[in-house]
Structure formats: structure tokens, C-alpha cells
Amino acid sequence: MTVHLSFLLILTGLTGVHCVTTVSKVSVKAGNSITIPCRYGSEYMNNVKYLCKGSHWKFCSYAVKTNQPHNTPSLSVDHQDITGFIGESINISCYYRNSGERRWCRLGMNCVTGSSGSIDGTSVTISATVPNVFTVTMSGLKAESSGWYYCVKGELQMPVHVTVTERPTTCAPRTTECPTNISPTLEPVHQSSVFASKDPSTVQQNSLSIHLKSFIIRLSLLTFIVIVGLFIWFMFNRYNGTKADSTGFLCGY
Predict the structure, then answer these.
(1) Tell me, what's the pLDDT at 242?
(2) CB of 137 within 8 A of CB of 149?
(3) What is the CB-side half-sphere exposure of residue 12 using CA atoms within 13 A?
(4) Could you tell me whether strands 156-165 and 81-85 are parallel, antiparallel, or unpaired per DSSP bridges?
């Protein structure tokens, strides 16, 4: 939101300049770039062009001029997204070209203005050993330290997002040694199933054995049926013979 409003302030100032045609309001995603077209008459070809910040062109401040070399931003950081680990420290370098008081603040909370202080229980130190740079060190990070912060130099602010997590643990590769009572040589595994053997001759022999057993079982069953049948036939004939002998004897009287 801060970046969006600052662009509105800079760009709306252009609409008040006479003989210049441009847009009145634009929006841009943070971290991206944008091109603003400014149309003017050919009679102003050699005039100095500038980008002005303010509510009206008569009272605005120059941000960029075509007769001045291109400069870096007045306040910047190396990265706007920083990751730290619980219990450890992080450093944020804030680069500036303007004057004014330096501060390190958490969005919506307090600021550290001196060389040291604390924000939400996290220790903060500010050092300036290099010209135009002040370094912020946050020590004893906690999970609650995650959030939005910003560098302040004079009237300028630069937001920085801090993420605090657990440091990933790294484990050394584990080696497994074989027990002394176990041979490291792999022994072949014998399968009881005839289908587990990879030898075609063995499979064929086992198949023949199965067919032979099946044939013997069927033959035994057939033999049993024949024997039972013969036994019944024998008993039936004997019964008929006995009956015939008995009938003939009675007829003799």
C-alpha cells in the first residue's frame, strides 16, 4: 500500500504541468517497473523534463531530471524478504543518500532510534561504520519476530519482511554393519511351489507328477466302482439262483 500511494503522489503531480499530457493515476505491483508516457509539443524539445513529487506542480519536489545523471534510490536495502532462524541473528543493511534520523521499526509497533533497543522482545542494534549505510542486527530471533519491518532515514521508509523459522536439521549418512554371526553372503531362497522354479525341466517333471497322481486317483475310483458293481451283480445272481432252487423243490410235491 505504501508503494502504491507513493506512486500516486509522484505521478499525479505531472497532471498540473501545462503543455504536458499524461495519465492522472496509475498502480504498480511492488518490485515491478512501470513506464509513464508524457506527451509535449515540439517547441519543448530542448526543455528540461522532470518527474515531480507533490500534490501540485508548483509546490512539488523534483525526483528525477533529464539534465541530471540517473541516481540509485535515496533509501534502499539488498533484499526486501529475509529469512532467519529461531535463536539466531540477521543483518539488514539500509543504504541512503538523504539526511535525517535513522530508525528501525516494526510495522504497527515501536521503533529503535538509538544504537540499541528491543522490539517485541527481540534485541536490536544499529551501527553505521560505513558512510551512507546503517546496519540493523536483530538477535535472539523468535517465531513471533516474523512480520513487516522498515528502515527509516529522514522522511523516507523502506519495508522489509522478516520470516523466522526453525533451522533445518542435517543428519550425517548412517552406515549399517552386518552382525558377526550373520554371513553377508546372500543364500538362495528355495520355494516350495513348483511355479517358483526357473528350471524348465523341473517344472515339466513336477507337471508330469501331478498328471500321474491325477490318473492314479481316477483309475482307483474307476476300479472301486467296477468292484462294487461286480459285487452287486454277484449278489443279485446268487439271490436269483437261490430263489429258483427253492421254487423247483416245492413243485416236486
Answers:
(1) 66
(2) no
(3) 12
(4) parallel
